Amino acid sequence: MDIDGKGDSMEELKGLQISALDDDDDDEEIAVDEDDSEEVEDDDDEEAVILGFVEKPEHSWSLLRQHFPSKAGGVPAWLDPDNLPSGMSCVCDICGEPLQFVLQVYAPLVEKDSTFHRTLFVFMCLSMNCLLRDQHEQWKHHPDKQSRSVKVLRCQLPRANPFYSSEPPKGNANDKPLTPGAPLCNWCGTWKGDKFCSSCKAARYCSQKHQVMHWRSGHKLECQRLRLSPQLSESDACNGGIAQIETQKVASKSLWPEYEMKNEHESEYNTEMSGDDVHNNNSLVSRNRIDDPMKSLLDNFEGDGDKKSWASFQERIAKASEQVLRYCRSATSKPLWPMLGGRPSKADIPRCSYCGGDLCFEFQILPQLLYYFGVKNDADSLDWATITVYTCEASCEGVGYKEEFAWVQLSTSTNFP
Q: 230-238 vs 220-228: helix axis angle to the nearest 10?
């Protein structure tokens, strides 16, 4: 297989790989404000959009990092397994709790070698109160420090790198990475386990809170066993934490269910289709169940403007109602907004905090994902209208993970705390 080929690499790597971009046009239209009425009416000029759907993986090994997956829920499959995020990148800026993994999108860019492998990771706090505060913070025009509860991290690698073979994966359980990677937290399996249990010296944690939660959930007994078996304890200390090579169970029961993300071009759904189309035949739940979270948004809309925007949004989404993600990276691509209110203007989108260049829209997460995650429709449950992700247009280079920008649109009835 020619991994440089656009179509072949999309199939083999199962990622949301994009085609070469037409970057010559600098007339960037990142997003529109509710005052930009002419641009709002211009949403019919459709870009080529890739839709993301979630389904349970046929093989658990297919979601390991050496297969470069796009996935939702569970734990991240870190692209760079050694230079993991640390410090404030891992926690909610509002409450200080470790963030939970939402999804990752494998989206290499073919125009330069440094982005041969490229993955975007989305994390968020489980608190709706923090999400409300987050929305308030994003309206501040580029302060030195915004307090965010939704964070996006970008990682990219050239074809020749220390972690993976330069040859494409074979697509079976025999694929292995070249290095084991840094040990992860035994509780969440998400963040780097740079703290040890002081008793057994084997279990690793990303934070004191996760150490306490693991202790209360059963590590107390396991810790005693390890202390009574010095040889076992020494062995576990050498291999402590969650490994990144094989599928491992984590102690936390609060992670969202894990899914593989499959992608299809929206153009395949542009013809009139019955409710028994190909994708719905393989669906996890009925179409009516998927539509429930979307219909609940309509109850919160106020005024004809929002209802008109919602009608346009719903007409486009209804072509493939199970989609949880919409991907379209180009200098002129725009999100599909459910409402008029709560959209960013161009001035609200910051510049890249690393190279100072422009950010461009890359993908958006739809509220249907909450259904698959089993999030309840309670007053204080996590909810959003859409989460849009903007990334460095140049995909600037650097080691490890770079933080990008997320914009959260909530329903119009939502009030700030």
A: 110
- Which class for 171: exposed (0-12), middle (13-18), buried (19 or more C-beta within 10 A)? middle
Strand 359-365 versus strand 325-327 pairing type: antiparallel
Structural contact between residues 155 and 123, judged by C-beta atoms closer than 8 angstroms: no
Return d(Cα 324, Cα 50) in angstroms, integer: 11
d(CA 164, CA 159): 8
Single out the residue of 59, 57, 64, 74 nearest to residue 258, CA to CA: 74
Strand runs labelled E in 12-99? 50-55, 71-72
* HSE-up of residue 216 (Cα within 13 Å, Cβ side): 8
Write the DSSP symbol of residue 65: G
C-alpha distance from residue 300 to each of 167, 216, 313 (Å): 51, 40, 15
Beta bridge partners of 403: 153
Identify whether the C-beta of residue 82 lies closer than 8 Å to the C-beta of residue 163. yes
Q: pLDDT digit string (tens) for 26-45?
A: 444 434 444 443 343 444 45
Q: Is-above-0.90 flag for pTM?
A: no
